[in-house]
Every structure is written in C-alpha cells, then in structure tokens.
C-alpha cells in the first residue's frame, strides 16, 4: 500500500500568491538593552596638558617617554570628507596648515581625531618655534594671512570610526595611532616616537642636543582634558607666555628691551624684561605692532618702580619667553625672546603661584 505524502514541515512562504509582500513589524527597542555602540563625533575636545615636574616619577615603568616638541598644539579632525585643524582656542587653522590637511586626507576616509603638535624643524631636525611663527606671519599686518609648510608630530588618537577613545588606556590609543599612521611615514603627519630609556638619562641627552625637554604619559590613563598629572613634562629650560606691557626705546635699534608681565591673581605683575633673541626684521615688525598699542593712561598697566624710560603698552601681545630661573624678587633670569603667541592659539599667560 502506498504511503500518503508527508505534509510540509514549514508553512508556505505565501498563503496568497497575489498578496503584496510584507515584512514583520519593527519592534521597539527594549530600553533595558544597551544602545548602539557608536559615539557621536565631538565638535571639539579640550586638550590634555602636561604638568611641569623637576624630576621623573619614582616608578617609571608605567610611563611612556617622548621628545617635547616646540610648536602649536593642534587636534586634526577628519569627518564626512572635511578636515579641520583645531587650535587650543577652538579656531580652525586648516587654511594655514595645508600640508597637514593633505596628509590627513591621505590616511583614508575614516572619521578620526588626532592630537599632536604643529612644528617647523631646523637644519638639525629640532623643532623651532621661531621658524613656525615666522612661517605663519604672526606679526603685524601679516597675521592670519600666511600659510605654513609645517608638519605635525602626532601623539594621541582620540576618536576613530564611531568610537570615542578617550575612555581607553593611553597604551591602547597609542597602538591604534601607530596602526593608522603605518605606511604614511613620508607624509606631513608623523608619529611622535616613544623612546625606551631611563627618563633622567633621556632628559640629559635631550638637553645636550639643544631640545626643549621630554614628555611622560601614564600608559594606564584615560584621556582627560587639562592638567591632571597623567601627562608630565621635564624641561631643559623653562619657556612660558607673558604679556608685553612696554618697551625701552633705542636710538640704534627698533627697541632696547621688552617689559613683561604675568598674572598675579586677577591682576598683572611686572616680571622683568627681555633684550635678546630678536632678529632685525622681527624686531622692526614687532615695533610697528607695539606702536599701535601705546598705553594712553597716566599710570602704567602694571606697578613699576624702575628708572627706565618706558613706552607703556596695552597688555595685548603675548610673547613666548625662554628663561633659566626666577630671581629672589620674582623676576626672570637669563631670558630670551622666542616669538609671539597668537590669541587664537589660546596662549595661556603665565600665572604666578599664590
């Protein structure tokens, strides 16, 4: 006897061949389940900053060390086909760093934020802030109109393809950054190399080569904006931004010296003068800018008891000054002019300790 055919194990795909196809209704997401693992692209990230230390930490095993670069701190954003070069002050300087923009585009279409330093190198491969400042035309009427062939030394990766990496350890972010930059060594974005060495010996070597110093970063730390102690710097010489509040005239040059001020609480205090480090062309351009800022009031902008003949100025221009130490009466010792800082770079004028 022939067995009857088995009924189909699955239901027919369509009960009515002529009925329109319909998908299953979309269920609402269970609020108890985690959201999609993609983070929004940040418009701006306040940078992590270095605490100045006199000596490295006792336990150096948890720290990565690299050269301290002397330039402009920038964060390069690549998102939806557009590249921005963001300064600490939140300004987009992409038009001023075209080589860095092109190098970022060459890394591919990924959305990312790279943290680093825009620098110019001298003939011996050392970063030179004066060269960078000159390339940007950051004096007088040229300000904001020049472009620079500067390169970028990258030292952190903050965002990559939908993932905010600031919560990850520095060692993880560093590994991902090296992967992103691999194969692009000839571009204008280069990795800031970690150096496996005793930090005290590394600092001594850096000073001998005429470098500014070294930077240490806690390998286990997340990325936190501001000064948190996760990043530290050890410097061969000190270098800080100060207001130019006056100049001493000279019959033989554009000026004899600049008078400087720092913040003392909410007020300004005179901290000495600087008379070296100027090139003739730089001094002439600086004098033209200062003559537009002459102080009109009778009392000077800072308390001053010296005997010099001074042309006082509105505290507007910010100079980067290198110095060796402080005198007992709170003045800079062995100071030298390095260049002007731009307000768009959010140069933080030095604050005296309370």
Task: Give an overview in words.
The chain is an alpha+beta fold. It has 2 domains: 61-235, DNA ligase/mRNA capping enzyme (D-amino Acid Aminotransferase, Chain A, domain 1, 2-Layer Sandwich), CATH 3.30.470; 238-345, OB fold (Dihydrolipoamide Acetyltransferase, E2P) (Beta Barrel). The chain has 5 helices and 18 strands. It has helices at residues 98-106, 129-135, 170-181, 199-208, 280-290, and strands spanning 48-52, 63-67, 72-79, 82-87, 112-119, 151-160, 163-164, 189-191, 213-218, 226-235, 238-248, 257-264, 267-274, 311-312, 318-323, 325-326, 332-333, 336-341. Strands 3, 4, 5, 6, 7 and 8 form a 6-stranded mixed β-sheet that branches. Strand 6 and strand 7 form a beta hairpin. The longest helix is centred in the middle third of the chain and has 12 residues, at 170-181. The N and C termini lie far apart (106 Å). Residues 139-144 have low confidence and may be disordered.
Give a nutshell description of this structure.
This protein has 354 residues and is an alpha+beta fold. It has five helices and 18 strands.
Q: What is the N-to-C succession of helices and strands?
A: EEEEHEHEEHEHEEEEEHEEEEE
CATH class descriptor name of the largest domain: Alpha Beta
Q: By CATH's scheme, which homologous superfamily of the largest domain applies?
A: DNA ligase/mRNA capping enzyme
Quick one: overall form? elongated
State the secondary-structure class.
alpha+beta
Proportion of residues in helical segments: 10-25%
Strand content: 25-35%
When the domains are counted, the total is 2
Q: Could you please say which CATH topology of the largest domain applies here?
A: D-amino Acid Aminotransferase, Chain A, domain 1
């Amino acid at each position: 006897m022939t067995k009857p055919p088995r009924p189909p194990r699955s239901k027919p795909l369509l009960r009515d061949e002529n009925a329109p196809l319909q998908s299953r209704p979309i269920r609402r997401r269970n609020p108890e389940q985690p959201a999609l693992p993609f983070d929004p692209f940040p418009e701006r990230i306040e940078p992590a900053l270095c605490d100045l230390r006199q000596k490295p930490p006792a336990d150096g095993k948890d720290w990565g060390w690299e050269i301290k670069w002397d330039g402009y701190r920038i964060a390069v954003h690549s998102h939806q086909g557009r590249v921005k070069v963001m300064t600490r002050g939140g300004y987009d300087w992409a038009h001023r760093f075209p080589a860095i923009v092109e190098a970022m585009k060459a890394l591919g279409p990924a959305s990312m934020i790279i943290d680093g330093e825009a620098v110019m190198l001298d003939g011996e491969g050392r970063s030179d802030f004066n060269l960078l400042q000159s390339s940007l035309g950051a004096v007088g009427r040229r300000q904001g109109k020049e472009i620079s062939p500067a390169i970028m030394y990258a030292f952190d990766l903050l965002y990559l393809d939908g993932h905010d990496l600031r919560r990850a350890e520095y060692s993880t972010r560093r590994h991902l950054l090296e992967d992103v930059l691999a194969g692009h060594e000839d571009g204008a974005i280069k990795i800031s190399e970690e150096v496996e060495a005793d930090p005290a010996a590394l600092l001594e070597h850096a000073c001998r080569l005429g470098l500014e110093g070294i930077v240490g970063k806690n390998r286990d730390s997340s990325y936190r904006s501001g000064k948190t102690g996760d990043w530290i710097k050890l410097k061969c010489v000190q270098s800080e931004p100060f207001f130019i509040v006056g100049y001493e005239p000279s019959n033989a040059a554009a000026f004899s010296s600049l008078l400087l001020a720092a913040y003392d609480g909410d007020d300004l205090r005179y901290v000495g003068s600087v008379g070296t480090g100027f090139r003739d062309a730089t001094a002439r351009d600086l004098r033209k800018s200062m003559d537009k800022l002459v102080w009109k009031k009778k009392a000077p902008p800072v308390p001053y008891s010296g005997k010099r003949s001074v042309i006082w100025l509105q505290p507007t221009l910010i100079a980067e000054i290198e110095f060796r130490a402080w005198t007992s009466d709170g003045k800079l010792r062995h100071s030298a002019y390095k260049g002007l800082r731009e307000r768009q770079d959010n140069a933080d004028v030095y604050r005296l300790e309370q």
